[in-house]
Design goal:
Two copies of one chain form a homodimer. Chain A is of the alpha+beta class. Helices cover about 30% and strands about 25% of the residues of chain A. Chains A, B: It is found in: Cytoplasm.
Chain lengths: ~210, ~210
């Protein structure tokens, strides 16, 4: 189906402006950040009609804007704001998907200080509304990726709140998360992990008679 | 359930910074923009555990950032980018919701030039992924609000593409959209309109044997 502008011109999706990449030449990600890898994976999913997931823009508080003549407006003073939600959300088979992605150079555990409390609060709200919500963690040095569903994340968060350890160990990821087998196209096939999670969840819900 | 910071301090949701309001003292919206009204409605839905819907931040391309001493980073040069999606999305009873909100001072029709082609393209992708997607239109002067589901919006868009009229008349909204009865809390109870739409849609899908 072709979409056209009011003047009859054919619509061509705009190429996204690429932002400069942070260089990091570990073997695993070959110079790509987790954000790059996820954006490419999301573009793959979109192009193949498998899911519509986008990264949210960074929230900015704009203080001063110049309008120089006929040129486009220039923002001259603005500040980063703390995001009140996670970074990624969208739709997969009609269901709402919402996740935060974090990478760590640590090789034995993931420090919970990388997750903001307002993100945990947001994921809790999404979970209560039956959305699919999770933390996606990249252990950069190990080239391993995990999808940790919110209920499990919340257990580890609560352990920390009650004075327990402030991180989740790799072994705990192996036991409680779904491992994502990094590939080529898409680089991070996280929807496969979502499928596994949902199959397990539904069989558990079924066993509980829900 | 109380959420605590790693240091044991209780989490208090941050009050959103209010941006200066565009003044518009028509009777209907009493100085509030549609964005304000929708943000308040979304806060109401969130507080009452009915839905988790947020406005996406405006996408900005950042060119230069200053880091003045110990103060926070100041963005010194940045530009507005064209959004590639709609403004609002979130989750309602497990389902993905995605919409664009537009207001018009026009009293007899809604000009389609207010909708960007990339937003139509995005809504089409969401619709194909079985998300709930629609255009929310406020006729400011009339104090009337409509939820126009994407399939109907797409019909009007296609009419324009094939050389037909470049707007949707008020009568066409009355016939093809679900009217939202503006109230007090929430100001714009658009989830009621979503419910009506879903009931109709499911009975139609049922009739088609889907």
């Amino acid at each position: 189906m072709t979409i056209r502008y009011p003047n009859g011109k054919k619509y061509q999706p705009v190429q996204k402006q690429k932002k400069p990449k942070k260089k990091d030449y570990t073997f695993g990600n070959r110079g790509k950040t987790l954000e790059d890898e996820l954006n490419e994976s999301n573009e793959y999913y979109l192009a193949h009609h498998l899911a519509v997931v986008h990264k949210k823009p960074i929230p900015i508080q704009i203080v001063q804007v110049d309008y120089p003549g006929r040129s486009r407006a220039v923002i001259r003073e603005a500040y980063y704001r703390t995001p009140s939600t996670t970074d990624y959300n969208g739709v997969y088979k009609g269901r709402y998907i919402d996740f935060e992605a974090k990478e760590t150079k640590n090789t034995t555990s993931f420090p919970l200080k990388n997750v903001h409390i307002h993100q945990v609060e947001h994921m809790k709200q999404v979970d209560e509304q039956q959305g699919i919500t999770f933390l996606l963690v990249s252990f950069q040095q190990l080239d391993r990726y995990f999808l940790l569903p919110f209920p499990q994340l919340y257990d580890f968060w609560s352990r920390m709140e009650s004075g327990g350890r402030k991180s989740i160990t790799l072994e705990e990821f192996e036991k409680n998360a779904v491992e994502i087998r990094a590939g080529f196209t898409p680089r991070i096939p996280y929807l496969d992990a979502v499928d596994s999670y949902l199959v397990n969840k539904e069989s558990e819900d079924g066993a509980r008679g829900e």
